Amino acid sequence: MLSAIALMALLALALGAVLGYASVKFRVESDPLIDKIDAILPQTQCGQCGHPGCRPYARAIADGGEDINRCPPGGEDGIRKLAELLGVDYKPFDEGAAQPKPKAVAIIDEETCIGCTLCLQACPVDAILGAAKQMHTVIEAECTGCELCVAPCPVDCISMQPVDATLKTWKWGYPVIPIKENAA
User: Fold this and answer.
1) What is the pLDDT of residue 83?
2) What's the CA gap between 177 and 167, in Å, rounded?
3) Which residues contact 55 (CB under 8 A, 6 or more apart)?
């Protein structure tokens, strides 16, 4: 009969073989077209396009089942970049659909916040800090302005404040290259 140590060693080897096989068997390859489309999208994960995030929307565009003009945070520039990538005509936003808005960030009125955590659960990018029955706050640098935290708040302590355009915030965080003026 096998000793307990030998039996455990055999089980560990068998489990390792199964897990090793499973990790190879179920590896998912990335689609380069989906990756390129996803890179153009603003990564707000807001769902305004009708999909639960930017990657599912990118997949739907790549599959040909979705128009390129459904992302308000991406704006007109995003549509133009998607059209260029896919070799299709530019298509403006539908009048009845969500429209682009100026960049905004969520602000929590800390005196009114009751610490219910509903905003934490709603935030798709984990930009809100807080704990149950404790005051919450927004990490402004992480907030995408998706507004998903506003509706679930039972005390209406969350508001969206426009972000002033600066060199750092002018467009989705792309770096600005300063232009030197010629001294005449």
Assistant:
1) 96
2) 10
3) 34, 38
Token digits for 154?
Answer: 């039972």
Cβ atoms within 10 A of the Cβ of 118, count? 17
Q: How many Å apart are CA 154 and CA 150, to the nearest integer?
A: 9
Is 153 annotated as belonging to a binding site? yes
Question: Quick check: helix, strand or coil at residue 30?
Answer: coil
Query: Could you tell me the two tokens for 78?
Result: 């995003």
Cβ–Cβ under 8 Å, residues 154 and 116? yes
Q: How far apart are CA 15 and CA 72, in angstroms?
A: 48
In a domain, 48, yes or no: yes
- 157 in a labelled binding site: no
Expressed as residue numbers, the domain containing 56 is 32-86
- Cα R_g (the chain), whole angstroms: 23
Tell me 70's DSSP state: -
* pLDDT per residue as tens digits for the range 45-82: 999 999 999 999 999 999 998 999 999 999 999 999 99
41 in a structural domain: yes
123 is in an annotated binding site: yes
pLDDT of 184 reads 45
